[in-house]
Design a protein that fits this description.
By secondary structure, the protein is of the alpha/beta class. Helix content is about 45%, strand content about 15%.
């Protein structure tokens, strides 16, 4: 038998292993021999018949098929279902209905379904669209709506959303759910009740969910009638609902707290004789969840209970090893653990997060058939495990038939299904054949339904899902029952071709920067330990202003040779520099943490962005710097080429001392310029380390010179007449001084200033936005990096109907933040850059004390406490405050255009955020906001090179955008050459054309 330690070792080796390698170990267990395969298919055909017989009442499945997620109508309904019930004001609710129903083509679905209910629903959507449309036709119905407002349409949509909620939710309260679980439709089925709600954002959220789980256990126990625990209703618990910082970096505090809470719930469940299952969540939390489960399972007072359980997601590469771990834990503790095997619930977000993080491989499978193979291999192991009570959650007839075949006459396991799904699949098995089936039964109000409902619709509305395919008359039984092992064997276990590895995210043009998995507790401990042990950055000698002249002279002398170097050679040097930055990533992170006071995640992001700049500009230069032949009359050749300007001054800020420093230098160099680079006086060491790596990459020492110091050094640099361009990132005031300096010398050529400056960056939130998502993105945008990002959120503009709820949750989320040493992995907010910044920010903060909405306490040192300040209007915020200070203004429904105009009037134009589920609102903001970067339904920081080019307008910058396809053009001269190619007295090329007239 596998031990706990061996199982954990297996998990580590499988976590991000190549997909073919993992599947090679699973296929033997999931492959069915011919006789068994025939028996399974025969049984599955019978289950299909049961399912189809139940489809007359299964309108939800048919509705999902009719309005699937690859149609505009399906996406519109999903968006409406996700947002409508949380909108408190009628004006926004009506706008949401118009937006989602009024823009889709419902008429194409009329009469297409063989379900009368689905067709009736379609007619209702057609009529609603007619009522909401704004096409100038004054029908009787539309005039009626105009007189009555739109309340009856709004009420009808609300009723439809609630009806959908009733399909997927067992009850609004546990008592209601228990009553429904006992009705005739659920005869023979047990239930596992789960309290609806997303992850806790605040400690109050966690406490509220904890009390709801306690009440659910108590009330479920009162209703228990069966003698055996497996025949009684049970409760499921999400760990993320109990603690707002259930993260690897906060495991030291979150895991002990969660152990205490789950232990209390487990004791209560054990005393009541019912089961308690810990749900599965994102893969990055798996190892923490196992620590919690193990600690609770080892409690001596739970001996003899056999009601404790856990969920395992089959789409994870570690799934089979987790099953082995559960068996080992049961054997060591002398109990039988319930293992709920599911296909998985977070596949799409796991894929995206892995790509964004630049990790080596995915923690899950990229093909549906591969997940099915993993599921079957796990199922076979569970059936053979003496210390596991298997619970198989599936709506797939082939999966169910396979398990039935493998189990033989045994009934010592159960199936599970989602409430509202899978009707017809298990009824005969339960009521006639004696098998057990438990319904996963969400409990909660309609508002809490939203996120759960969207997740279920995404899973079961996907084109590859069994539920979706079953409802499609064009999908044959043979396709439905195709052997997943055969599918995977046929492709050699290869990953899905449309889902590239993270390193190949940008195709063949460039590699994605490599990340570090900071969600892995061992990796995080190693990185943090290395940073803590690193020596402080060596002092950097400050050059006097007179030394600037020598640096410029050397760079000017090196320019002709560097400019004549082929662009492929220059680009190759940048690619080598990117590789070296990745090689020394952790050492560079240590300097960023020590010198720039960056947290560990921010330091990693800094290095990755620098790598991306090098590779992106190298690829751009290769594509842009060849000779371009332009059209013209016959006998003439016109060519355009790009050439470096000369010596470029690159002046970088302290808030991105590596990424922006490298970005400016790499762009100037690859464009054929020589460079004199000046970092901020606070962060010379990281710049010096970057320059050393540039030399190692093959960039000539005189083509890149480093000068350090304060404003006098920068002033001497930009005033040197040999400098042919300046790239600057910093304050608007400094950018203006540089611009004046470049124009003071009338004998000097007119040279470009590429400036990226700050902004009063606003986020607009309307009442359709999900408050939990808004608060998460506000915390990230306003307070990460201690608010010291150019893109950071400074002004939160919330629709007044949801302002108090939003601010209440924001206060609670702020309470979960940790301020302290940036080298500590648990730190969210470190000190600001220096004493001068602290004094300036703290003086302003204290001056606004009467208008504080909320402020955290701060530790001793140069820490600015995250603070929320209430303003009466947008115009009251007249300048950027570069720290963790957030200003809030409310606006009324209908006042959005005026609100956008007020932000525009501030004159800045760097970033803006928008949280809304109304497409027309997004269109309005996109068309009228004067900003360089607009972020919709996400945070406002973390622009990705090549994907989200970054830069502002107005008082926020000159353009072009850094990390964008036009940026290099600011570093070059364009030169054209026009040549008359005719020979003496005639055009030989024209005369060589056959059959021309006039000859």
């Amino acid at each position: 038998m596998t031990s706990l330690d061996t199982a954990r070792t297996m998990m580590r080796s499988l976590h991000r292993a190549p997909e073919p390698q993992v599947l090679a170990g699973l296929l033997p267990a999931a492959t069915l021999a011919a006789p068994t395969r025939d028996a399974v298919v025969g049984r599955a055909l019978g289950l299909l018949a049961d399912l189809r017989a139940a489809q007359g009442d299964g309108w939800v499945n048919r509705f999902l098929h009719q309005y699937r997620l690859n149609t505009a109508e399906g996406v519109a309904l999903l968006s409406l279902a996700e947002a409508f019930l949380r909108v408190p004001d009628s004006e926004t609710a009506d706008a949401l209905i118009r937006d989602k129903i009024g823009t889709a083509d419902w008429a194409q679905h009329k009469g297409e379904s063989d379900s009368a209910l689905v067709n009736s629903a379609t007619w209702g959507l057609v009529m609603t669209r007619a009522l909401m449309a704004d096409d100038g036709k004054a029908s009787v119905l539309k005039r009626l709506v105009a007189r009555a407002g739109e309340p009856f349409v709004r009420q009808a949509v609300g009723a439809a959303m609630r009806m959908m909620g009733q399909v997927f939710v067992m009850g609004r309260t546990i008592d209601e759910a228990l009553e429904r679980a006992g009705d005739k439709d659920n005869r023979g089925f047990t239930a596992s009740f789960d309290m609806l709600g997303e992850a806790a954002r605040t400690h109050d959220d966690g406490a509220r969910y904890f009390e709801s789980y306690k009440a659910a256990i108590r009330d479920t126990a009162k209703a228990a009638k069966a003698n055996h625990i497996t025949d009684r209703h049970s409760v499921s618990v999400k760990l993320s609902a109990l603690h707002p910082r259930y993260e690897t970096a906060h495991a030291a505090t979150a895991v002990p707290a969660l152990i205490d809470m789950v232990a209390e719930l487990a004791r209560s469940a054990a005393a009541s004789g019912i089961g308690l299952t810990v749900d599965a969540e994102e893969s990055e939390r798996l190892m923490m969840s196992l620590d919690i489960i193990e600690a609770v399972a080892r409690l001596p007072e739970l001996n003899g209970w056999d009601g404790f359980g856990m969920a395992v997601q089959g789409y994870g590469k570690r799934a089979r090893a987790v099953v082995a771990w559960a068996q080992a834990l049961g054997a060591e503790t002398g109990q039988r653990l319930t293992v709920r095997l599911v296909k998985g619930a977070y596949w799409d977000s796991e894929i995206k997060r892995t790509q964004e993080s630049g990790l080596a491989d995915y923690p899950l499978f990229t093909r549906k058939a591969a997940t099915d193979v993993s599921y079957l291999a796990c199922a076979r192991d569970m059936l053979a495990a003496p210390n596991i009570y298997p619970a198989f959650a599936s709506h797939n007839a082939l999966t169910v038939a396979t398990i039935l075949e493998w189990a033989g006459p045994s009934r010592d396991f159960e199936f599970q299904r989602l409430h509202g799904m899978g009707e017809g699949l298990f009824e005969r098995l339960v009521r006639e054949e004696g098998y057990k089936c438990r319904t996963y039964a969400p409990v909660g109000g309609h508002r809490d339904l939203l996120a759960y409902l969207v997740r279920r619709l995404l899973e079961n509305g996907a084109n590859s899902s069994f539920v979706h395919q079953l409802a499609d008359a064009n999908v044959s039984d043979a396709t439905l029952l195709a052997d997943p092992a055969e599918k995977i064997a046929a492709v050699g276990g290869a990953a899905h071709p449309s889902i590239p590895l993270p390193i190949r995210l940008y195709g063949d043009t460039r590699s994605n920067s490599a990340g570090i998995d900071l969600a892995d507790e061992q990796v995080l401990a190693r990185v943090a330990g290395g940073i803590a042990a690193a020596a402080p950055p060596a002092p950097i000698a400050v050059d006097a202003a007179r030394d600037v002249a020598a640096a410029v002279a050397a760079a000017a002398k090196a320019f002709p040779a560097w400019a004549a170097t082929p662009v492929d050679v220059r680009a190759a040097a940048l690619d080598r520099l990117a590789d070296l930055l990745e090689r020394d990533c952790e050492a560079l992170m240590a300097i960023c943490v020590r010198e720039a006071r960056k947290t560990i995640p921010d330091a990693l992001g800094e290095v990755r962005e620098a790598v991306d700049f090098c590779r992106y500009y190298a690829a751009e230069a290769r594509g842009k710097f060849g000779t371009l032949v332009l059209p013209g009359p016959t006998g003439e050749r016109n060519e355009l080429r790009l050439e470096g300007r000369g010596v470029f001054a690159c002046i970088a800020p302290w808030n991105f001392p590596l990424a922006i420093f490298i970005g400016q230098v790499a762009a100037a160099l690859v464009a054929g310029n020589s460079v004199v680079a000046k970092p901020a006086p606070q962060t010379p060491a990281i710049a010096a380390a970057a320059v050393r790596l540039a030399y190692e990459a093959g960039i000539p020492a005189d083509a890149l010179r480093l000068v350090t110091g304060g404003g006098e050094v920068g002033d001497a640099l930009v005033r040197d007449p040999r400098v042919m361009g300046v790239a600057f990132t910093g304050s608007t005031a400094t950018a203006r001084r540089i611009a004046r300096a470049l124009l003071d010398d009338e004998t000097r050529p007119l040279v470009p200033l590429i400036a990226e400056t700050g902004g009063i960056n606003a986020m607009i939130v309307d009442s359709t936005a999900l408050t939990e998502q808004v608060v998460h993105d506000v915390i990230t945008s306003a307070f990460r990096s201690a608010g010291q990002r150019c893109s950071a959120l400074r002004l939160l503009l919330v629709q007044e109907d949801v302002a108090e709820r939003t601010l209440a949750m924001l206060k609670g989320a702020m309470d979960t933040l940790t301020m302290g040493d940036p080298a500590d992995p648990a730190t969210d907010i470190g000190p600001v850059i220096d004493a001068a910044a602290f004094d300036r920010l703290e003086s302003y903060r204290q001056s606004q004390r009467p208008r504080w909405v909320y402020a955290l306490p701060a530790p001793d040192g140069e820490y600015i406490a995250p603070t929320v300040i209430r303003l009466g209007s947008v115009a009251e915020l007249t300048q950027e405050w570069f720290g963790p200070i957030l200003h809030v203004v409310t606006w009324r429904a209908g006042d959005l255009p005026a609100t956008i105009a007020a932000v525009n009037a501030l004159g800045y134009g760097l970033t803006m955020g928008l949280h809304s589920r109304i497409a027309s609102v997004a269109t309005l903001v996109t068309e009228t906001a004067h900003v360089g970067n607009l972020y919709i339904n996400r945070s406002m920081i973390g622009a990705v090179v090549g994907s989200q080019p970054f830069g502002g307008e107005g008082r926020s910058g000159t353009g072009f955008k850094a990390g964008g396809p036009h940026y290099l053009l600011r570093f070059v001269h364009e030169r054209t050459v026009s040549t008359d190619t005719t020979s003496a007295g005639g055009n030989a090329s024209l005369l060589s054309i056959e059959d021309v007239a006039g000859i």
